[in-house]
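Notes from the 1:1 (GR / supervisor)

We went over the backlog. Supervisor wanted to see one worked example end to end before approving the batch request, so GR pasted a single chain during the call. The sequence is below; no edits were made to it. Supervisor asked that the structure be written out right there so they could see what the output format looks like.
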Amino acid sequence: MDEVTTDNENNSVDTQALQNGEKTLSSLELPDMSFSKMIGHFGPGIILMMTGIGTSHIITAPTAGGRFAYALMWCIPVAYIFKYYGFEMAFRFTNATGKSLIEAYGTQWKKWPLWYVMATTLLQCVIGQAGRLIAAAAVLYFLFSYLFSESLGFEIAIEYFAVLLGVFSVFILLRGSYKIVEQVAKMGARISLSYHCLCVFR
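Structure output shown during the call:
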C-alpha cells in the first residue's frame, strides 16, 4: 500500500509539473517576425558569418575556377576524405576514453604534438590576421583613393589603413562591450552589402 501511495504521489507531482510547464509555454509570446526584428535577432551569428566568409571564398575560389575550370575539382573530395578521417578518429577517441585531443597529444614523446599545435596556431594567427587586416585595409584604401584622392591632393598608404583598423579592433575588444562589436559588425555588413549591390547592378 505504501508503494502504491508513493507512486500516486509521484504521478500527481509529475502531472502538476507538466501542467505548470504547459501554462508557462502558453504564456510565452512569439517574437516579432518582421524583417527588421529578425535582423536584430541574429546576435553573434552575424559576426560568425562575417568571419567565416573571407577572401578565399570571394576572390580565391572564383579566380581558381575561372583560370583552371575543373582541373582542381579533385581537391574537394580529397580534402573531405582527410577531414572526415580526422573528425571521426577524434570523436571515437573522446567517446572511448573521455579525454580531449589535447590530453591525447600530451601523452606523445616529449609532447611534440602540443608544440606543433602551438606553433601552427601562432603562425596562423599572425599570418591570418595580417591577411585579414590588409584585405580590409584594401577596401578603405580603394574607397578613399577613388573618392577623395583628387580633392585631398594626396593618397594615404594602405599600411596606414591596416594599422588604423588593427588599433580600432583592439580598442573595441579591450572595451569588453559586445554591443559595440555587434553594432560595428552590422554596420560593416551593411556597407559590404551596399557595395556588392552597387557593383552588381551598376
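Supervisor's comment: The chain has ten helices and no strands.
Batch request approved.
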